[in-house]
Amino acid sequence: MIKKRKINLITLGCPKNVVDSEVLMRQLEDQEYEFVENSDESEVAIINSCGFIQSAKQESIDTILHAARLKREGRIKKLIVMGCLSERYSKELIKEIPEVDVYIGTNKLERVLNEFGVELKYELLGERKITTPSHYAYLKISEGCDRPCSFCSIPLIRGKHFSKPIEHIVQEAKYLSSKGVKELILIAQDTTYYGLDLYGKRVLAQLLDQLSEIEGIEWIKLMYAFPHGFPLDVLDRFKANPKLCRYLDIPLQHISDSILTSMKRSSSSKETFDLIRKIRDSIPDIALRTTLIVGYPNEGEKEFEELLTFIKEMQFDRLGVFTYSQEEDTAAYLLGDPVPQSVKEARQKQILETQREISFQKNQQLIGKTMRIIIDQRNDNAAVGRTEYDAPEIDNEVSIEDAHQLSVGEFYPIEIVDADAYDMFGIVSAVDPSLRESIKNKGRGK
Ligand code: SF4
């Protein structure tokens, strides 16, 4: 049994893993364990791994191999690997990287705590050690997924969908607010499915209502919405609730009917078009983020052209695109992986280039506008922040000069004076014109 030692916890993958790590850290800190940034200072290393697609798996394996070397050199005494890669491949990993003391899967908090000789403290559930900048936090509202998407390994890793009880989520959000969090970013495998398992109906809108009543919370962002069965009562909340950012992340993956059918996405291209139009008609200034996959087994030139035309027509505000990763045990695995990697990457590049131009044009329209910006970072006389239309780490940022009077985690009216495809440049609203001009010039690299 390990007692009172320093721990280096490395979290890989998505914000859901960030939340799992934060919950674990709160439990262990309460038992006098200390978390350190640097593995050289710690006796114990924990790697919260990701096992989603090839590139993420490779990153996890490289991180584990590095820690295994430190263990062999005696620089760390214990190495624990938890999370998705471990859940999915522990048998293989035990053989391949035996230096790891224990492999633990997903949702096994007590199992990890037992490795430290401590029991789960139920009274701490709903509490976390916030590892993001303290003014925003991810709020995981459910775990697992019941969707049959043919390319996706997540249901195999994270299991069936289960919603957290609404009162637990609200209690966690109140805890986060008491720690200074102003922006809640709602996450799950599928946030729009929330409540179906627990309450027999979708209650995401009701959850948003309750979260909005929490004092101190100013912004709420909705990520990982699923198109099929999208709860339309949520659209009313966007209109009525000023705390709900006019931002929606809704991964669509593709638009060609033959691909959507093969992907088992349950929505047709017509249904997808109709939903996007309904959302935009209902909230005209909403920023829509989506995620797409290129190079899916039966994606030919025709299907890819359909996708390209779709994003030109739909003009998404934010867009991510992955190359198809053939994942064993998924329904699509049996289709093989016929699209050459070079073709996948060429298609990904073409989509990103098209989106770059769309994003540039959209950002140009913001020049001259004063927007409410939350400050994420500040160093000396410069600051970086985001609008309500941008999620941390994945979307646009606003760089602000002459920012010595700005504080991290606070909101300010910022005038956008220049912009490029993914970044904007701003000044604190109502400062003198000469400064405006110098920043403008600086923005354009003159
Ligand atoms: S909704 Fe589909 S893509 Fe998303 S986690 Fe569930 S199965 Fe995977």
SSE diagram, text form:
Elements: E1 6-11, H1 15-29, E2 34-35, E3 44-49, H2 54-72, E4 78-83, H3 84-96, E5 102-103, H4 109-114, E6 136-140, E7 142-143, H5 154-158, E8 162-163, H6 166-178, E9 183-187, H7 196-199, H8 204-212, E10 219-222, H9 233-240, E11 244-249, H10 257-262, H11 269-282, E12 287-294, H12 301-314, E13 318-323, H13 341-364, E14 370-379, E15 382-386, E16 397-400, E17 411-419, E18 423-428, H14 433-443
Parallel strand pairs: 1-2, 1-3, 3-4, 4-5, 6-9, 9-10, 10-11, 11-12, 12-13, 16-18
Antiparallel strand pairs: 7-8, 14-15, 14-17, 15-16, 17-18
The protein binds iron/sulfur cluster.
Iron/sulfur cluster is lined by residues 145, 147, 149, 152, 154-155, 189-190, 226.
Describe this structure in words.
The protein has 446 residues and is an alpha/beta fold. Helices cover 36% and strands 21% of the residues. The chain has helices spanning 15-29, 54-72, 84-96, 109-114, 154-158, 166-178, 196-199, 204-212, 233-240, 257-262, 269-282, 301-314, 341-364, 433-443; strands at residues 6-11, 34-35, 44-49, 78-83, 102-103, 136-140, 142-143, 162-163, 183-187, 219-222, 244-249, 287-294, 318-323, 370-379, 382-386, 397-400, 411-419, 423-428. Helix 12 (301-314) runs parallel beside helix 13 (341-364). The termini are far apart. The chain binds iron/sulfur cluster. Residues 145, 147, 149, 152, 154-155, 189-190, 226 line the site of iron/sulfur cluster (SF4). Iron/sulfur cluster (SF4) binds at residues 145, 147, 149, 152, 154-155, 189-190, 226.
